[in-house]
Amino acid sequence: MKLSMTWRARLLNGLLSGLALVALVVLAQSRIRTVLYNAVDRAVKSQAEAMLHHGPPPGFPRDGFGDRGGRGRGGFDFGRGFDLGRGFDLGRGFDLGRGRGPGGGPDVIRFGTTALLKPRRIPLERQASNPTEPPWSVAGAAAARERGTDLRQELDKDGKAIRVFSIRQPDCIFQTAASLEQTDAALREIQQALTVLILPVGLLMGLLGALLTDIAFAPIRKLTRAAAALQPSNLELRLPQPGGNDTFDQLVTVLNAMLSRMEAAFTRQKRFTADASHELRTPLAVIKAASSFLLENDDPLTERQRRALFRTDKTVDRANTLVSDLLLLARAENGSLPVQRESLSLQEVLSEAAQAAEAGQSTPHAIVVLDVPPEPFITDSKLLHRVVVNLVSNALRHTPPEGNVMLKASVAGSLTLTVTDTGEGIAPEHLERLGEPFYRPDASRAREQGGVGLGLALCKEITAALGGTLEIQSVLGEGTTVTVTLNP
After folding, report:
1. Residues in contact with 247: Cβ distance below 8 Å, sequence separation at least 6, in sequence order
2. Rg (CA), the chain
3. 15-29, pLDDT tens digit by residue?
4. How far apart are CA 350 and CA 387, in angstroms?
5. How many folded domains does the chain comprise?
6. What is the largest CA-CA distance in the chain?
7. Residue 476 and residue 483: Cα distance in Å, rounded?
8. Of 185, 239, 332, 446, which has fewest CB within 10 angstroms of its CB?
């Protein structure tokens, strides 16, 4: 199944929103990890700063530490070696001598929520004392020996991640370390929370994206409604300009220019039809007068001459009917069809129209049954007569003699006329085009029966001029029903 452009835009918007959400979660996790790891790094550096400035905790060898003035005996200026940060409160940061971790182990010092491990002193000489405590990071000690300071991540003897800060002193490498166990646990909890939020937040963003898509398509829907309201009778209307000088605005400008060209073409066509119909009336009237005069004259005529004149007379009658229909159709399409409303007797007008339709049939035809209430109605009697004659004549032409045609009327505020036949019916593919001038589903048969394809077109235009509607329903092989609704 092919998706519409609107649904494709909605799905694309939802997909982009989902990708943006995933990217946002990944960036948030990365940023949070960086912030937490930076906090651990600041803790181990602050521990080193405190011990170098204030001395080691009880029981820790004091060799290699400077006095409380802030410099080591070797002249190392800690503040210049790396960024210590500002605002560190030593008294609240951690307990240098008595702090213990959650398990009460002696190697853990609490610094806020960071578990600091016991600092270690690595002598520069191999034969130095305290050989039982290996460095937290051998590579870090070697790097500090070369560069002065080093900060890296290592694994302790239990395989757990730790952050190790190493700094070179005159006779040793001093290392402070912090466990990443709680930090990684916090990161896992944050990751789980963000993962759980992806689905509901993603659905919310998808709905919001669909809503924004509908809002973005609002100008298109407005243009669609305006374009649907355009008819051949109101081509002077134009599509509303959305403004903004964007693609939509340019599209509307192009469409309005096209409507202007179509209006001009339709106007020329209607004017030509009306003018040609009017001009043809005079020569046809002359021909009709001449043929009628010769046929009614007592002068002797050969049989061939009489047949030729009779055929000419009938052809002129058909041409006059065609010209009259064209002129009436042109006036109806131009909105210049005169309408004179009056109170009339439905029984009288419809009966006369049915009789006129039957009189116009040259072959045996079906019976016309009338079901008309004796109620008055206000409308144009001549135009109503013309509509009924055309509809009944069309039904008789397409109904066999053994069939029947029903003309029914009902008044309930508005007038509803139905012409139902038991004829051959109309194929579904032709129903939409019925009412177009000169359109005939079976052109050859319609021509033999005297139809030219203007009857239904006239009925539709006259019905519209009277403020009504015309609908056609048909089943092939069963018959056709035409319903006309007129407002008083």
Report:
1. none
2. 50
3. 777 788 888 888 888
4. 10
5. 3
6. 156
7. 18
8. 185
Given CA atoms 325, 327, 331, 336 in this order, what sign does their dihedral have?
negative
Report the share of the chain in percent with pLDDT over 90. Answer: 17
Tell the residue number behind the tokens 């930076």, with chain if given.
38
Helices marked H in 335-373 = 346-359
pLDDT computed for residue 470 by the predictor: 92
Q: Tell me: the pLDDT tens digits for 219-251?
A: 778 888 888 888 766 778 888 877 767 777 888
Alpha-carbon span 140 to 383, nearest angstrom: 106
Amino acid at the residue 197: L
State which amino acid sits at residue 326.
Answer: L
Q: What is the pTM of this model?
A: 0.48
CA distances in angstroms from 275 to 269, 436, 470, listed in the order given = 10, 20, 28
- Confirm if 94 and 111 have CB atoms less than 8 A apart: yes
Whole-number Å distance between alpha carbons of 8 and 213? 10
Spatial separation of the C-alpha atoms in residues 167 and 36, rounded to whole Å: 22
Cα(376)–Cα(415) distance, integer angstroms:
10
Q: Do 434 and 406 form a contact (C-beta atoms < 8 A)? A: no
Residue with tokens 């100008």: 219
Distance CA 163, CA 175 (A): 10
pLDDT digits (tens, 9 = 90+) for 73-102: 333 333 333 333 333 333 333 443 334 433
> Would you state the structure tokens that stand for residue 221, as one six-digit string?
């829907």
124 belongs to a structural domain: yes
Task: Give yes or no: residues 353 and 304 share one domain.
Answer: no
| 165 and 42 inside one domain | yes
Domain boundary pick from 187, 213, 234:
187
Nearest to 241 by CA among 229, 250, 233, 232: 250
Domain limits for position 262: 247-333
One domain, residues 373 and 445: yes
Question: For 438, left (φ over 0), alpha (ψ -120 to 50), or beta?
Answer: left
Following DSSP, what letter does each residue of 25-42 receive, concatenated?
A: HHHHHHHHHHHHHHHHHH
Q: What is the dihedral of CA 240, 243, 247, 248, to 10 degrees?
A: -30
Lowest mean pLDDT among 49-58, 202-211, 277-286: 49-58
Identify whether residues 175 and 254 lie together within a single domain: no
Residues 48-77, buried b or exposed e (16+ Cβ, 10 A)?
A: bbbbbbeebbeebeebbbbeeeeebeeebe
The span from the CA of 467 to the CA of 226, in Å, is 21
Tokens of 459: 């009925």
Would you give the distance in Å from CA 254 to the centre of its chain? 22
Assess contact for 456 and 394: CB atoms under 8 A: yes
Record the tokens describing residue 348, joined without a space. 């009288």
Give the pLDDT confidence of 446-464 residue by residue, as tens digits.
545 555 677 888 888 889 8
The bridge status of strand 161-168 relative to strand 108-111 is unpaired
